[in-house]
Amino acid sequence: MTEADVKVVYQRPLGLTDRVTHYCPGCTHGVAHRLIAEVLEEMGELKNTIGVAPVGCAVFAYNYFDFDFVEAAHGRAPAMATGIKRTLPHKTIFTYQGDGDLASMGMGEIIAAAARGEQITVIFINNTNYGMTGGQMAPTTLPGQKTSSSPLGRDVETQGYPIRTAELLATLDGAAFVARRSLHDARGIRMAKRAIRTAFEVQKQGLGFSMVELLSICPTNWGLSTTNARKWLAEHMLPYYPVGDFKVSTAVSEMKIGGN
Amino acid sequence: MALELIKGNTAVAEAAMRAGLVSYFGYPITPQTELLEHLSARMPELGRAFVQAESELGAINMVYGAACTGMRTMTSSSSPGVSLMQEGISYISGTELPAVIVDVVRGGPGLGNIAPSQADYTQIVHGGGHGEYHLIVLAPASVQEAVDLTGLAFDLAEKYRMVVCLLLDGFLGQMMEPVELPNFQPLRTTPPAWAVGSPDSKERVVLTSINIDPPKQEQFNVKMMTRWQEVEKNEVRYKGYYLEDAEYVVVGYGTAGRIALTAVRAAREQGHKIGLLRPITLAPFPAKLIDELADRVKGFLVVEMSNGQMLDDVVSITARRVPVEFYGRMGGMVPYPDEIANAITELVNGDHDVNADGRAKWLAKMRETVGTGE
Q1: Same domain, yes or no, for B94 and B164?
Q2: Contacts of B208 in chain A (CB under 8 A)
């Protein structure tokens, strides 16, 4: 094989460190990390970005992203991001949060940040359970879904109904771009990357708050193989959590995205 | 510069601006609100960051984020709000970040009321949040002193990369006094090398309070405790009145210390050799001085607007060498000078039993005079 035959088609993006992650095999956190890193690299924002890590499975996200990072208390990432962004308004600031962190503990902080039109980007991982602590019921757990703290299945009579976070935040005027995508297949991943790009562009152009909810699999706590977990997501999560753009402000709809 | 008549809360807010405050995050709560209101107008006027947060939890975590940039940041609240902030205070301390918190203390527990109190001593001085950490705690007794200590608070926070609390009470927050405001200090425009977003850092910066490896967490705690020893060595501040020939010493801080001074002066006029120790730093506490005094005076009287939270520290230091009596008012009540004068007389004429429980004696009298409301 000559040199001319060799072409790199896939490599680790510059925004990720070489460190091996602690995520379980098959978990889509790695996919989400990669998409963020690719987007920030393509936008030329790697040196200008500060991330805010959550409490939950992604608590060590700062070990994997190769730029400045801070670590928030459980649920408080949007408040912490607000403090950084208001101090350094020209930096790109994003939070990376799971469903327990964002939709349970931190619901006050996320709603307030969105309502203020805070110029931050939120990447929200919805895998319908508390992964880090071993698969307990989350605000996003589906009706009837068994978890380690709803062993008979979530009973909506006593445990209430799941929260559709993207739809909820889309009602707020300060939210400029709110979308949901799914990481269960290749097409979904491609669509997720475009939405993440849009979300960061919204921030860069100062158009308001942006959030992308990413439906994710949790093979370990769901007790499923990776393949079956992806099927379970498609069969059970997609009907309850449809993918789509729930808020695209007029300014965002007219926004031009350069490059890729 | 001419003196201006300014309310305590407003004066602290303006002093913070002049000390180079880059960002402020807060939530309205009486009796602190004028501080937030003043900054809501002044910070945007000078192109600086102001956010009225959704809660004290939001405010303290915004401060946490802003503190990660190493630029001067602050929040203010009153007792119930500060209770909510304890989570963030622990995290900020665990990340070695500089930040300033103003607590304008009110009567409690619970919702309590909006009257002046000193009942946050324990949660501020001895740590209301989880884990081992210390705050530097500054307790002024006048609006001018509050202004002067505001600038010091930012300097100390940066020097030691710690949280500094300016501990006021509703009296100091609401009272108007003539003050001389300091000049404007230059504003930091970029983060220092240790902070996120710094143009000067050689490598990427990660700021976190997590130490998942217990030996590393223990090492961190040893490091922070060693830093606290430095603070104890360098930063003790107090004001002593008539201590040189004192036979008895009254110990009180803030508003209680100021009222006690009136009672001490009255006792001096009657020929009693009474001194006053007014700690300005509650942490680090003037323990060495109290220890020395315990070897040469006949007794102490601790005066607080609480149930005797600083009293425990004085009793611990004096170790029953001399009697330590107590006089306090609680729940938003403020003592009159003659109440303290009576307590001084009782101390001087008392039985000097070093083993007597000063608080129990005080509480028995309180049941008779104030009652339990039942």
Answers
A1: yes
A2: 53, 62, 69-71
Q: In Å, how far from its chain's centre is CA B353?
A: 31
Counted domains in chain B: 2
pLDDT band at A260 (very low <50, low <70, confident <90, very high): very low
Closest CA to B251 of B217, B302, B304: B302
Among candidates A70, A82, A108 on the partner chain, residue whose Cβ is nearest the Cβ of B51: A82
Give the B window 158-217 contacts with A, CB below 8 Å: 191, 196-197, 204-210
For chain B, say whether A53 makes contact (Cβ under 8 Å).
yes
Please tell me what DSSP assigns to residue B181: P
Candidate from A67, A88, A109 with C-beta closest to B204: A67
Q: Does B58 contact A79 at a Cβ distance shorter than 8 Å?
A: yes
Q: Which pLDDT tens digit goes with each residue over B302-311? A: 999 999 999 9
CATH level 2 (architecture), domain A10-253: 3-Layer(aba) Sandwich (3.40)
Residues with Cβ within 8 Å of B371's Cβ and at least 6 positions away in sequence, in order, are: none
What is the value of pTM for the model shown? 0.96
What's the CA gap between B66 and B98, in Å, rounded? 10
Residues B62-104 pLDDT 10s: 999 999 999 999 999 999 999 999 999 999 999 999 999 999 9
Inter-chain touch B65–A91, beta carbons under 8 Å: no
State the complex-level ipTM: 0.95
